[in-house]
Each structure stands twice: as C-alpha cells, then as structure tokens.
Amino acid sequence: MAIVINGSGTISGISVGGLPDSIVDAGTLATNSVDSAELIDGAVDNSHIGALAASKLTGALPAISGASLTGFTDAQMPAGSVLQVVQETTTSGVTTTSASYQTTGLAASINVTSGNKVLITGVLNAVGPNAVLTGTTVAIFRGSTQIFQPAEYAGYNTHSTNHTQPIPLDYLDASAGSGDVTYTVKYKRRSGSGTSRVMVDAAMSRIILTEIAG
C-alpha cells in the first residue's frame, strides 16, 4: 500500500510496525498521552518504581516473615515490649555464719539498652537455718549495689532443724542502666550464731531476667 500524505495533515498507508526502530522517542510523545490503559501487565517492574506512598498500601498484604524485617531495632519497639529473656539456675548448696552478705551462686547477666527496664523473677529455694531463731536475709544486687530485699527474715524458724522455704525474687528494675548488667542473689545470717543454708537437699533455684522496652 502506498503511503499518502493527505491534505488534512494526516498520513495513511502506514501499517503497524511500519516505522523504523527508535523513530518515536520520549520527546515525540505528548505530555500525559500515555496512561495505565496503554501499559501491559508487568510493564513496570521493581527497578522502575521510584517510591510508593503509604496510602497506596491497601487491601490484603502478603505474609511477612521475620527474616524480611531487616534493620528493625529494639528502639522501635513500643514501650512494654519484651526484648529478651535470660535464665540461670543452680542446685549447689551453700552455707554461711556471716552477718555480711555472701553470694548464693545464683546470678545472671543481660545486655540492656539505655532507657529499658529489667524484670527480675525467679525463686531462691531451701533457705534454712539450723539454730533456734537464726534467720536468713536475702537480697538482690545489681553489680555491687543492693536494689531489693525480697524478705528481711527469709527462712527464719524457731526449731533446730533445716526447713525448706521458697523465696520469690520478683522485682522490676526501672534503673537498670545500659550495657552488660549482672544481677546476683546474696544472703546472710540474720541473727544468732547458727548456720544459714541455701539450696538444702539440692533444691533448684532460678533467676530470670526480662528486658522490657522503656
């Protein structure tokens, strides 16, 4: 078919594919002349998407695995979120006749982000003196600082035999600081001259540290 330039300013006789490659460039197209109706499915791939507004994220979204959440930090978690949990246990019995605090052997360390709290839970089992009216005082230390005394006269009795008494270690440390923090459970003889005992008969004791977003 012959190509005819019509007097009306139109050209006839050109079939699809009749123009040489690259003859129509971006400057040839009128502004806003191409819309989504002219695009085939899949024509715009990821490499050609500059940005996507949050308002465009509507409808059902695909499931997101934890592996896809890169760059997510503890600081972005809402207050009250659990960030990490550490547990330590012991069954080794210890004794003391000292009126000054001694370690029970029960301790745990946790790396804390500044501004967060540490929830301390657990139990110190089998606190038993072996002398009349000799009690045992228990306390939790953060480093060298005493922060909590669960029971001032923990494990006291009026008998000359050992007995088992679980002592709860429940305390929220709102001033944990930052970096590696070690919590140690200590004990001492409250009064009298007897021997205070912890973990009698190999009873297990435990301390659990939970970092809570501030």
Report the principal-axis shape: rod-shaped
Radius of gyration: 37 Å
Helix run count: 0
The helical percent reads: under 10%
The end-to-end span amounts to 79 Å
Order of secondary-structure elements: EEEEEEEEEEEEEE
Strand proportion, as a percent range, falls in: 35-45%
Mean pLDDT: 81
Question: Strands, helices and their partners?
Answer:
Blueprint: E1 4-5, E2 11-12, E3 82-90, E4 94-96, E5 102-112, E6 117-124, E7 128-129, E8 136-142, E9 145-151, E10 167-168, E11 171-173, E12 179-189, E13 196-198, E14 205-212
Give a quick precis of the structure:
The chain has strands at residues 4-5, 11-12, 82-90, 94-96, 102-112, 117-124, 128-129, 136-142, 145-151, 167-168, 171-173, 179-189, 196-198, 205-212. The chain has 214 residues and is an all-beta fold.
Give an overview in words.
With 214 residues, the chain is mainly beta. It has no helices and 14 strands. The chain has strands spanning 4-5, 11-12, 82-90, 94-96, 102-112, 117-124, 128-129, 136-142, 145-151, 167-168, 171-173, 179-189, 196-198, 205-212. The strands form 4 sheets. Strands 3, 6, 10, 11 and 14 form a 5-stranded antiparallel beta sheet that branches. Strand 1 (4-5) and strand 2 (11-12) form a beta hairpin. The radius of gyration is 37 Å and the shape is rod-shaped. It starts with a strand and ends with a strand. 21% of the residues are buried. Residues 156-160 have low confidence and may be disordered.
